[in-house]
Amino acid sequence: MTDASNTAQLTINGKSYDLPVLSPTAGPDVLDIRKLYAQAGVFTYDPGYTSTASCDSTITFIDGDEGVLLHRGYPIGQLAEKSHYLEVCYLLLYGELPTASALEDFEDRVTRHTMVHEQMHNFFRGFRRDAHPMATMVGVVGAMSAFYADSADVNDPWQREVASIRMIAKLPTIAAMAYKYSIGQPFVYPRNDLDYASNFLNMCFSVPAENYQVDPILSRAMDRIFTLHADHEQNASTSTVRLASSSGANPFACIAAGIACLWGPAHGGANQACLEMLKEIGTVDRIPEFIARAKDKDDPFRLMGFGHRVYKNFDPRATVMKQSADEVLDLLGIEDNPILQVAKELEKQALDDPYFAEKKLFPNVDFYSGIILEAMGFPTSMFTPIFALSRTVGWISQWKEQFSDPAHKIGRPRQLYRGETQRDYVDVENR
Ligand code: ACO
């Protein structure tokens, strides 16, 4: 944000207060209410933060009405088509596209941190085999602070950098281990001769008993899924990471908090919930019944993969994801996939329905990602862990940005208290 160029006036009980208006480089102006309570003695009320900017950021910009998503100014469509995940990681973390040598150096640093401490294998073994991989990931990532205490001091920029690289490098290993553990197969160590996405596929799908060749088209699709989920400004999990970090908590604890928040079906858990919904619908003829349920005020059912807090137009990530779904299913020779047919018809019928048009509900990124992931061989329980590992770079970039923001302070919202006012304690025999 630039300095306040004009002010807005707020009048309360006949008294006026000047509020600075901050001008962003893109997006709506922002009223600076930081001094409001000190000057006027009132709080603002904004559950769900629908009108509140919680920080000053230069990483990601979304115009939800136009369906625009930019990382450091670059449109997501261009990045998904021309770039690749580790280059986007560099862009998010450091602000510019890397030169060839900077990219090589970055890829080398990430690749050489992919293994996890051998003792962590025992930690995994403490979980039940049927644990949801997200439960395992929340625990294991939080426990990284016990294994990597030499990069947990948030006041040391060098340790912050090491922790960042470690998490980008190790999250795929941890997600793959959570998967292997859940199906009773041996952990597969990372391979440094493979690119980031191929290495992840290899850790998930290879077994010691035979050779596994990563298909380059699947690897490209995997990389695209990572890229499309890399960052999304101040969403619930990112805000959770920022809030956790505002107390000075170590980086691994903060990312574990982000993973926990992402798990919910209204956020990252939507990809699993969406595929389960498509399977429950099952056949095209049942779509109207589910659309009717989604519109019924007395039914809590919602069309998963539809709607977004910020996008009131097409989610630009969904457009790329839909294309990828076609490519992957075509490659695997399953273009007649009944779930894809249900998805395409559901999208069509919902978009034609005035309820969804009026409420500006469009497919979001998760509407098609589950179809691709399932076609690749992932069980639904792995969809959200894959989202989590992709989003790690976004969380870390936003977490790092906080340390260079002079306005940064501990997060501490206020409240509209509507409980009892002070009253005297009554002894139990007199109640
Ligand atoms: N199906 C049916 N109706 C919906 C849906 C949906 N998927 N989403 C919103 N609505 C309706 C609500 O009932 C509400 O109607 P009302 O005004 O008559 O009460 C209106 O649209 C606004 O909905 P809110 O819940 O107030 O919107 P909010 O911005 O808080 O919620 C959210 C956004 C959580 C994403 C919501 O659209 C939803 O639950 N979608 C399904 C879950 C999903 O796909 N989540 C993934 C989000 S993307 C991501 O995290 C990667």
TrEMBL record:
Known pathway: Carbohydrate metabolism; tricarboxylic acid cycle; isocitrate from oxaloacetate: step 1/2
Stored CDD domains: EcCS_like
This protein's UniProt keywords: Acyltransferase, Transferase, Tricarboxylic acid cycle
Catalyses which reaction(s): oxaloacetate + acetyl-CoA + H2O = citrate + CoA + H(+)
Active site (UniProt): H308, D366
Any GO CC annotation of this UniProt entry: cytoplasm
Lineage top rank: taxon: Bacteria
GO molecular function: citrate synthase activity
GO BP: any one term: tricarboxylic acid cycle
InterPro entries to which the protein is assigned, alphabetical: Citrate_synth-like_lrg_a-sub, Citrate_synth-like_sm_a-sub, Citrate_synthase, Citrate_synthase_AS, Citrate_synthase_bac-typ, Citrate_synthase_sf, Citrate_synthase_typ-I
Record family assignment: Belongs to the citrate synthase family.
Protein name: Citrate synthase
Organism of origin: Rhodalgimonas zhirmunskyi
Gene from which this protein is expressed: gltA
